[in-house]
Amino acid sequence: MGNDRHEQVLDALGAAIANGSLEPGTVLRSEELQERFGASRTVAREVVRVLETMQLTSSKRRVGVIVREPGEWNHYDPRLIRWQLDGPTRPAALTTLNELRSAIEPCAARYAALRATPEERGRLGALGERLARSAKARDLSTFLEFDIAFHDLLLTASGNPMFAQLSEVVAEVLTGRTGHGLMPPEPQPEAVALHLEVAAAVAAGEADRAERAMRDIVVQARDEIALLADAAPGVE
Amino acid sequence: MGNDRHEQVLDALGAAIANGSLEPGTVLRSEELQERFGASRTVAREVVRVLETMQLTSSKRRVGVIVREPGEWNHYDPRLIRWQLDGPTRPAALTTLNELRSAIEPCAARYAALRATPEERGRLGALGERLARSAKARDLSTFLEFDIAFHDLLLTASGNPMFAQLSEVVAEVLTGRTGHGLMPPEPQPEAVALHLEVAAAVAAGEADRAERAMRDIVVQARDEIALLADAAPGVE
DNA sequence: TATTCAAGAAGAAGTACTACTTAATCGAGT
DNA sequence: ACTCGATTAAGTAGTACTTCTTCTTGAATA
């Protein structure tokens, strides 16, 4: 994990591309990169290779490394997500990610109801209980913690690796919401009830019911965000 | 595009990992890779770097390159998807991808209804018409072509880059379905009607209606697949 | 004279190889 | 059991060479 020069240069250059400092169409020469980041040829080349596989750049002989259009990027790469969340594009990124999670989670709840192991069903119920308790205690930080754990477990229990991979995204969206002061001072009772409903439905193996409850959750979240967008117009 | 040695070695090694020939936990030494693929140190290193960013491997000093658990892979990388579709894991991969698309597309239809440009709305309607015509003519291959174009446009029009990126996945799923002889000999009239409904809803900017119609489409597809899974039990 | 096409020169990425650095593991010896 | 040194393989640096693409030059032709 986290190697030396390679990681540093990758982060620096990747972030620069992700946040738009380097506009699409920009041409970088390999030698130029070595100077700018004080990196050896080896490091510079490997970084470019990685960016290339993320579809952030393309390399052409006799031309150089070309920054691609955002539409061509692999937007699911954890690194790119990180760069976008850390930069000025954070609001737009959070919107995009929230749309993604609200699309996935109801479906994930359905498959969790169909495929979760007995142990997972039990743990989900337990998490629901703890969620309700911390909500009653108005303890926002532990509420967030259990909320993240709840959604994480659900996505994992869906048995679909592509769903499971979105755990981090969901965690980021949930954290971003509370962190931004966008959450009500205390968790909404309806939301808590819906979480319990999801857990119960999954425990009972009722796919439709689990999906419906989870859809209600994300719709509620969506409406909150929309309300907020009206108050403070974001970047489109 | 498509460089020389690098691409070849990457494909060979990546596919070997993706299809399970190299089990998780397997340790590869850099030198070993050079021999096995007849590649230079440079190429071998860059390939490993790329696999590392895809989370397919991790490298540790004094140990080597370690193949990671499938659960840790970045399952959204187009290359990995390709490798899984081309290997013996194809059926399982198609199932996973189909679940993903059926989760996303209704949501994408909603946002398309809200955000598509006038031009996109028009083109979607036109594609719907052509879809209906080729269905009536029982021309399966052009039907598939328009079907792919329809879903592609819808995802793009959603305005969410993460949705848009799934165009290729949807194309693959749709193609895989017809190619596998899993489609009825002629497109189902209901499906065609639903596509027209989606196009109409998007044109009218009716988000709920567009989402509902698209959900009906993917549910129908899901039930078809489920029916098939009963007939010929697939790999879980 | 202007235009098109072709051959060649130039330039940058791609590949190969060597030398050196760093850090993690293993083992010997206390 | 613990420390410390030797070993080993990845990480980094730098040089030399290859390949391919683009741009330029120039000649032939309309």
Overview features:
homodimer; 236 residues; mainly alpha; 3-stranded antiparallel beta sheet; elongated; DNA-binding
Helix/strand/pairing class of chain A, anyone? mainly alpha
Largest sheet of chain A: 3 strands, antiparallel
- Helix-strand topology string of chain A: HEHHEEHHHHHHHH
Apparent shape of chain A: elongated
Overview of the molecule:
- Two copies of one chain form a homodimer.
- By secondary structure, the first copy, chain A, is mainly α.
- Helices cover about 70% and strands about 5% of the residues of chain A.
- Chain A is built from eleven helices and three strands; from the N terminus they run H-E-H-H-E-E-H-H-H-H-H-H-H-H.
- Chain A has helices at about 5-20, 30-35, 40-55, 80-85, 90-115, 120-135, 140-155, 160-165, 165-180, 190-205, 205-230, and strands at about 25-30, 55-60, 65.
- Chain A has a three-stranded antiparallel beta sheet with strand order 1-3-2.
- In chain A, helix 4 packs across helix 5 (about 90-115), helix 5 packs parallel to helix 10 and helix 6 (about 120-135) runs antiparallel to helix 7 (about 140-155).
- The two termini of chain A are about 35 Å apart.
- The interface of A and B includes residues 6, 75, 77 and 111 of A.
- Chain A binds a DNA duplex (30 and 30 nucleotides) through helix 3.
